[in-house]
What we know:
The chain is built from 23 helices and 22 strands.
Amino acid sequence: xxxxxxxxxxxxxxxxxxxxxxxxxxxxxxxxxxxxxxxxxxxxxxxxxxxxxxxxxxxxxxxxxxxxxxxxxxxxxxxxxxxxxxxxxxxxxxxxxxxxxxxxxxxxxxxxxxxxxxxxxxxxxxxxxxxxxxxxxxxxxxxxxxxxxxxxxxxxxxxxxxxxxxxxxxxxxxxxxxxxxxxxxxxxxxxxxxxxxxxxxxxxxxxxxxxxxxxxxxxxxxxxxxxxxxxxxxxxxxxxxxxxxxxxxxxxxxxxxxxxxxxxxxxxxxxxxxxxxxxxxxxxxxxxxxxxxxxxxxxxxxxxxxxxxxxxxxxxxxxxxxxxxxxxxxxxxxxxxxxxxxxxxxxxxxxxxxxxxxxxxxxxxxxxxxxxxxxxxxxxxxxxxxxxxxxxxxxxxxxxxxxxxxxxxxxxxxxxxxxxxxxxxxxxxxxxxxxxxxxxxxxxxxxxxxxxxxxxxxxxxxxxxxxxxxxxxxxxxxxxxxxxxxxxxxxxxxxxxxxxxxxxxxxxxxxxxxxxxxxxxxxxxxxxxxxxxxxxxxxxxxxxxxxxxxxxxxxx
Length: 556
């Protein structure tokens, strides 16, 4: 297998050719120390994640656009934390699915550091560093928690808009806030703050989405006074105030009355940042070009995507795409086509795609297009499914939720539950053991050798992929899979158990725990996290691999 040294990879990052750096460790391990432009593709979910972040056409996309089989020629470098075998396994998998230009970074991240280059802790680092750069570049104004509380107590004319997805909003929110995820802000603010005299405060859990949300409104020319809540909900609680839990206050669904104004603002922002328009024929041409990588991402809200989307497109809600770019896009210098409501009814929408596209241009310099007209393209409904032929190939019996519940009641089965450790803490099947696929050997001493095993996974595909591993751990024990995964268990109304200490913080290798996810030292972790975010802009400057704003020059 081809290996390269750190100096070679550093040169590749700056040579202008397509490049993806994939880190084979699990997300929690990745978060300890990694390269700036690396994407986490842990082995536990590699079959589901690698194709997507590399922009490889799914079977649905190939069928919808009549694409021929193609060589997967994008240049890839696989990295790990110096273990070696993790990167080798990921590289071998990629070569097995047809990727023809795969290398290993000799010595992994430790060798990168030894060569004098910068490594970063945390996750979604390019997006978070970009947020800090935006604040410095554009002078985004902010208020402290104490200042916001004083504004509330004085009865000022104001709205507090939380730019996170509703799931995060429910966990903790500023009293009186409305959930308006970042991609929706410019689209819907005219209906929420109808008077230009209303002050708009944008918050998130920490800093990035507060800054990006506030600056999106400012960059779009919203006439109101707009400020970010400095340090978000963490700053609010560190100031001694209490967050709400379990609130479900969101924007009004449907097309906003102020659409025309939002469109004009977004068109101007996109034009200033070099975002281009494309129609169905142009999209077909991009996808047929095998020499370049093209991502097709739908930036609308989840319910809109599920109601109907271009077949083969992947869902990447606008505000979250900018906040966590490395979740969806690994290939530097690729092309990105964004889909919004205007693609289905030309002239009626496009706000979220244009705002997202403008920020992506500044963040990573990608070529970004907005699909203006999807006429003649094939459409699909539903949330979309992962393209994972490896899971389909696993021969295994499935168990429906009711049957599994009965088997558990009789004590005749043991359950291994796969999914994010943070989700297992919140809700797991009573008596289930949590594990990380590709490392299930760690459960051998806790599994009985005389009872069948049922794998309950967040995704049934991951459950299927775990079956051969469990059969190797317990060769004489029948292994089955919970049909439909944990979603089917929840739909059946069957009980789950919560335990914030199971697994303990130290075992959460699959998830980079946020300060408020921890069981101890939460306040200290919050302060460390906020200091880390603030310092990112200086670390990025020292590293030199991010050239924010270079693709469009001065954006304002």
